[in-house]
Amino acid sequence: MEAVITINPGATKWDIREKVWDYIEAKNLANFPRPVHNRIPNFKGAHTACAKVSELQVFNETDEVKVDPDKPLEGARLAVLQARKTLLVPTPRLRTGLFNKIVPPEGASKEELRVCSTSQGVKEFSVPVGLDAKVQVDLLVVGSVAVSEKGYRIGKGEGFADMEYAMMLCMGAVTESTVVVTIVHDCQVLDIPEDLIESHDITVDYILTPTRVIKTDCQRPKPQGIIWTKLNTEMLEKIPVLKKLRALEEEQGKDVTLGTHPPPQPRERARREPRRDREPRSEGDRPRREPPLTVTTVYLGGIPAGLRVSELKTALREREAAPIRLTWQGAQHRAFLDYLDPQAADQALVALEGLSLNGHDLQAELAKSQRGGRRPGPSNRRPRQNTGPKNTARESRESTSEAEADSPKQELNHNE
User: Fold this and answer.
1) Range of the domain at 317
2) Which residues contact 15 (CB under 8 A, 6 or more apart)?
3) CA distance 148 to 258
4) What pLDDT, in 10s, does the model give residues 81-99?
5) Is residue 227 classed as helix, strand or coil in its secondary structure?
6) Structural domain includes residue 32
7) Across the chain, which distance is largest between two alpha carbons, in Å?
8) 358 CB contacts (<8 Å, ≥6 apart)?
9) Whole-prediction pTM value?
10) What is residue 214's three-state secondary structure?
11) Best label site of 62, 266, 359, 381, fewest CB within 10 Å?
12) Same domain membership, residue 351 and residue 257
């Protein structure tokens, strides 16, 4: 299949990242969180692609699987838990260790396993795994910004996936035969020049997309361990587990000399010095002078008294039903959820079936203004004026104000 994103000669890794991020935004190929810049994109169809991991022979032959904590890999984490395999997830930014083991409740239901596969579940149901633990991982699932059919991978630029692999190699948790899988949108599969790939870059053996399973037959060797000269004392302070690994390797007589200069910080440079010749970004990345978004609105009723808007947002994210804008009317026990198009709204309605919060069942349905021809239109709806007593009207205004401070509407404005 021909790549839909063309890489210009002489392009750098950051040129490729920016081009992929811009394309996904411009084509509206991602779910929450948006914009996708400086992230592993949570692409539409991620769960379909993740489901393919259980079709791989190596998946059925292994007992322990490490899956990165990225949002688009949630379906892969769920597949591991449903297969009753051991799921290992790296700790965020490696601050408190290398990885955690996810331990679901005994006899967990399918819904409980789904919760365990989310970012919140990873926090609540995880147990730290020490460096001295006897761990043998035969399958790694990593996120990517771009990947080639030859197995060359580009992440978001922070190097954590490469670092995790090198660290696991040091502790004997992986070997050269450990299979590495990445899960991406079809548009993220493109031609990456081999000269961009460095000795510390992890390569992949399989690429899973919503439409394909690609076996790369990559001939390039994977990293052989931690390259200490690429690190410095500042990084060791930020990632304490590196200190322990360095001490272990030093005891083994290995050269653990650190680099003298801090590593470059391309993320900040990319923000301050944007390329002027790159493709235009999506509507969500432009200033607020842009025309109003065309949306489809879903009504959510039955919201229990005392529920916080942040709790509702968490529930929506866990069900992959986060809107681009949320209008909160907690005093009236309702909220309105705006989605980019009717298809996104329909997906949200399916995801919200059976939603229960604080013991109350919520009702989700298409807002009255959207039911006729089901055509999306400019969102001109505002919270209805309350005609009741003054104190009730004041309560309504306060609830709406809370949503302004803690709702996806504010997140949408941050796309500038």
Assistant:
1) 296-366
2) 7, 8, 275, 278
3) 32
4) 999 999 999 887 666 667 8
5) coil
6) yes
7) 78
8) 304, 306, 307
9) 0.63
10) strand
11) 359
12) no
